[in-house]
Structure formats: structure tokens, C-alpha cells
TrEMBL record:
Residues 84-182 form the HTH araC/xylS-type domain. This is Transcriptional regulator, AraC family. Transmembrane segments: none annotated. Keywords: Activator, DNA-binding, Methyltransferase, Transcription, Transcription regulation, Transferase. InterPro entries: Ada-like_dom_sf (IPR035451), Ada_DNA_repair_Zn-bd (IPR004026), Homeodomain-like_sf (IPR009057), HTH_AraC (IPR018060), Me-P-triester_DNA_alkyl-Trfase (IPR016220), Tscrpt_reg_AraC-type_HTH (IPR020449). One of its GO terms (molecular function) is methyltransferase activity. The keyword Transcription regulation applies. It comes from Pelosinus propionicus DSM 13327.
Length: 187
């Protein structure tokens, strides 16, 4: 691979060109940060930019890695990070709609984008995923507690008894009362 000229490097930075990632890094003296050529940060002043062929050279210059493009990582895929955070929020707060909404809002993405990313990664909508989690929790509660079915439905995050019955039957194959009876008969 031939060495890149300073002009080629600058054009790659201005164009946020992914094809140059890993071939060089650029640092901005005024911010003390170094980036990948594809970084979507604000275009720096040319006079404030230094180019580095290796990451160790950027560190030696006294720069720290950009938090947006993460040049310190071999691979960085922010979309996968967001999807993982979305899933963690769903796993932790599926039964608490208000907390769930607040936590997702902190991610700074729209509800439609959240749904799109989740469906793309897991081939189901967030609602379908959370209903599966709710039904799994309901199954455990039906077997391990004496709570009424209404209380279990509400504790699992269902807003109505009809939705609970519909989802339970869809994922388990029969209604919650029958599941409880069969489970206690096998104990």
C-alpha cells in the first residue's frame, strides 16, 4: 500500500471516508482528541489537524480517543451498542412502562428508530419482545405465588386483562388458569 499524501488524508477527513479507517488517524490539537477518518464530528480547522499513521503516535502526541468514533477500538459499531442498550432497558424495565419510556428517552433516539433497529436485529418488534418477557415472568409467578391472575398480569406490565390473556395464550398455548392448574398438578 502506498503512503498517503497529507492532501489525500485531509480529503478523507473532510469526506468522512470509511475506506481510510485504519490507514491513518487524525488529531485535533485544540481539542486534544484523535479520530478515525470517517468520524462524523464537526470538521476541524485544517491548521489544527495532525495526521498519525499509527494509534500509538496519536497517544504519544498526548491526544485521547474520540468518544464518537472510538478509534481506540478495533471495530466500532454504534448501532449495535444502541441495540444492546435498548435490549438491556427492555429486559430490566418491561413491567414498568413509565420507567421504560424514561430510560429509552435517555438514549436520544426516536421511538420509530428504536423500533426499526430492534426489529432489524431481533426480527420482532419491541412490544413482541417485551410481551414474551412478561409472559415468562407471569408463568413463574403463576407457579410460585398465590397472587390472582389479575395481580400477576398487572405486576408483569400488562395494562389490561384481555391483552394478558391474548398474549399468554399466544405464547403458551392455553390460558393462565389452565397453566397454573397443570403446573401445580405436576409438582
Amino acid at each position: 500500500m502506498t503512503a498517503l499524501t497529507t492532501e489525500e488524508k485531509w480529503k478523507a477527513v473532510v469526506g468522512c471516508d470509511h475506506s481510510y479507517d485504519g490507514r491513518f488517524f487524525y488529531g485535533v490539537k485544540t481539542t486534544g482528541i484523535f479520530c478515525r477518518p470517517s468520524c462524523k464530528s464537526k470538521e476541524p480547522k485544517r491548521s489544527n489537524v495532525e495526521f498519525f499513521d499509527e494509534i500509538k503516535d496519536a497517544y504519544a502526541y498526548g491526544l485521547r480517543p474520540c468518544k464518537r468514533c472510538r478509534p481506540d477500538l478495533k471495530e466500532f459499531c454504534p448501532v449495535l451498542d444502541i441495540i444492546e442498550k435498548i435490549k438491556e432497558i427492555f429486559d430490566a424495565h418491561f413491567a414498568d412502562k413509565d420507567r421504560l419510556t424514561a430510560e429509552v428517552k435517555k438514549l436520544g433516539i426516536s421511538q420509530n428508530h428504536c423500533i426499526h433497529l430492534f426489529r432489524q436485529q431481533f426480527q420482532m418488534t419491541p412490544v413482541e419482545y417485551m410481551n414474551k418477557l412478561r409472559v415468562e415472568q407471569a408463568k413463574q409467578m403463576l407457579v410460585s405465588t398465590e397472587l390472582t391472575i389479575v395481580h400477576i398480569a398487572l405486576a408483569c406490565g400488562f395494562r389490561s386483562l384481555s391483552t394478558f390473556y391474548e398474549c399468554f395464550k399466544k405464547y403458551v398455548g392455553f390460558p393462565p388458569k389452565k397453566y397454573r392448574e397443570q403446573s401445580s398438578a405436576h409438582s
